[in-house]
Amino acid sequence: SLRWSCRQKERCRGLSSAAVSLSSAASVWQMRMTVTFDKLPTIPVFLDAKKLSAGVPAFLGWDTSSTTQHHWLVGGNSGAGKSYSLMLMIAKIWRYMPDMTRLWLMDFKGSDDFHYLRGIPNARYYFHDRCAVGLQEFGEEMESRLRDNPDRSPVVAVFDEYASFISYTQVMDRSKKPEARLAPKCEVWLMNALFLSRGVGGYCVLCTQRPDQSILPSGGARDQFGCRVWWGRFSSREAATMMFGDEAKLIPEDYVGGLGHGIAYMDGKGLFEVVSPRIRRMDDVKEAIRELVTR
Fold this sequence. Notes:
The protein is of the alpha/beta class. It has helices at 6-11, 17-20, 25-34, 49-53, 82-96, 131-147, 162-173, 183-196, 219-223, 237-244, 282-292; strands at residues 42-48, 59-63, 71-76, 102-107, 125-127, 155-160, 202-208, 227-231, 261-266, 270-275.
């Protein structure tokens, strides 16, 4: 569970003390221009299920400074705890990453978990068909950094239910002229974010119930996800292979999944059975997410 210190409570009401002392939004921008991030934290994201069953609550760490662990593919059937663990992951990004870290949150189904973000001025929260706007804006941020924008402060794009979004967009495109179709543009924006953002401070977390080739047609794109986690049961061995590739062979035969119980792969570390930690103070988690989308 998260433990929030007094300093972190202060951060939850705005920028950190260093940022608050700056005189204006322009000063904050200038700070982003000059700060570099040579070493970023390792974030304790999940509990190791094997060690936990032995009475040792050991966390698995997400090395955010590793170029092969920038992007996450998160899967799981409905009711397996995917959204719950996603909220906790975002809150831990707020807790451990630098104070200037920002979040673009795309929530296609308009989940009740994020409903409180609607109506907040200037929030980078997008739901339903507005998710395309968020994906485009994040892509433009990455493109500007690749051109001449020296900002390297961490930025994170989280897209919940991407598969449903792209399927819906493809259906809506059928009545449009080819040049006006949105789904191909969204696919390009996502590919750019996955392939080009790692060297300029970008992170992507893609959540879906079905990680099949209809969503990520490029094998190279799938390989960009150095971190993957599936919550709950697999519908078939093929589904496990689609998620983890050759690593799926290492999934224990007796794995049964369950609420908040999953399989995770981290590049350079291997495959693990994992358990999602409990959220003890949901209000703190929600406030952390609110701050990340409004910085």
